[in-house]
């Protein structure tokens, strides 16, 4: 059974409300929306809450939404965060969208932050090299910090180790054994053309493809003629039917088999 959340001790006087507000503000800055939420948990007396909020705003203990957003944005940008996450976090904290936009515009006017430069600086500080990450992970991390795709691409282009940054697919391709991958696809009933296309799509180096394939065919490890026949036998095409015969041919062609292999398989099936 889930334990019930402990009930917050309710304020008996307006001084209790002040004390609660001051305690929270001693921990960190809060937006007006956040402080209202805190005080509403402390008391149901809206007059007390209004009095305390008005007093604290008047004394600048609680900033206006615009001023809060300006201070937050300046700190965020100085700490190498981008605009996108900064806008999102401010709105999540209850700052109206227009106040967020105006505050950020004001900060950029006053301080001239260059997010292409900031993103490049951050990337080079966090990643001296790319040995332990992938392009996808890097994009995810930089996006979470609020940078746009163009800012991230520019940062990568300016990184000294840019040529070593690989995608997950490229890393897997570099580790792949061509012989093993050919056999895997062959055992799935795929012909030479389809095997080549799939390996190419996975960025696996195919420089030795023909040589390895020839060696496997000579040793009898693979036999595309037999494989083509096996794939045809799994289907119930009537090769004496004018409509079924082209369907059978098209099916085997889609599987990646070559014309000679298909014709031989269909001829063998006719003779059975």
Descriptive tags:
about 270 residues; 16 helices
SSE order and pairing:
Blueprint: H1 14-27, H2 32-42, H3 46-58, H4 65-78, H5 83-92, H6 97-111, H7 115-126, H8 135-144, H9 149-157, H10 168-175, H11 178-187, H12 192-201, H13 209-219, H14 224-233, H15 244-254, H16 259-271
Helix pairs in contact: 1-2, 2-3, 4-5, 4-6, 5-6, 7-9, 11-12, 14-16, 15-16
Count of all domains = 3
* Strand proportion: under 5%
Q: How many strand units?
A: 0
First-to-last CA distance: 70 Å
The profile of the biggest β sheet is: none
Low-confidence runs of at least 5 consecutive residues? none
Q: Roughly how much helix do the residues carry, as a percent range?
A: 55-70%
Helix tally equals 16
**Secondary-structure element order, as H and E?**
HHHHHHHHHHHHHHHH
What class do helices, strands and sheet pairing give? mainly alpha
Shape: elongated
| Mean of all residue-level pLDDT scores | 94
Return Rg in Å. Answer: 33 Å
Describe this structure as you would to a colleague.
This protein is mainly alpha-helical. It has 3 domains: 14-58; 65-164, no CATH class; 173-271, no CATH class. It is 67% helix and 0% strand. The chain contains 16 helices and no strands. The chain has helices at 14-27, 32-42, 46-58, 65-78, 83-92, 97-111, 115-126, 135-144, 149-157, 168-175, 178-187, 192-201, 209-219, 224-233, 244-254, 259-271. Helix 4 runs antiparallel to helix 5 (83-92). The longest helix is centred in the middle third of the chain and has 15 residues, at 97-111. The protein is elongated, with a radius of gyration of 33 Å.
């Amino acid at each position: 059974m889930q334990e019930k959340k402990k009930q917050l001790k309710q304020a008996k006087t307006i001084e209790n409300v002040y004390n609660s507000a001051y305690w929270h503000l001693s921990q960190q800055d809060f937006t007006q929306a956040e402080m209202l939420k805190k005080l509403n948990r402390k008391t149901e007396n809206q007059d007390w809450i209004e009095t305390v909020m008005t007093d604290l705003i008047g004394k600048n203990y609680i900033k206006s939404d615009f001023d809060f957003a300006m201070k937050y944005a300046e700190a965020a940008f100085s700490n190498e965060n981008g605009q996108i996450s900064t806008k999102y976090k401010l709105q999540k904290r209850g700052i109206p969208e227009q106040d967020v936009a105006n505050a950020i515009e004001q900060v950029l006017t006053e301080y001239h932050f260059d997010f292409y430069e900031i993103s490049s600086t951050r990337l080079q500080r966090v990643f001296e090299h790319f040995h332990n990450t992938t392009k996808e992970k890097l994009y995810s991390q930089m996006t979470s910090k609020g940078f746009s795709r163009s800012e991230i691409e520019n940062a990568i282009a300016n990184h000294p180790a840019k040529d070593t940054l690989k995608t997950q697919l490229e890393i897997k391709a570099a580790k792949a054994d061509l012989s093993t991958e050919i056999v895997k696809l062959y055992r799935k009933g795929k012909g030479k053309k389809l095997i080549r296309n799939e390996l190419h799509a996975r960025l696996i180096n195919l420089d030795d493809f023909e040589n390895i394939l020839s060696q496997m065919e000579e040793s009898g490890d693979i036999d595309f003629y037999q494989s083509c026949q096996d794939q045809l036998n799994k289907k119930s095409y009537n090769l004496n039917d004018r409509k079924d015969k082209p369907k059978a041919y098209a099916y085997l062609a889609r599987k990646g088999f070559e014309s000679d292999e298909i014709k031989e398989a269909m001829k063998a099936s006719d003779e059975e």
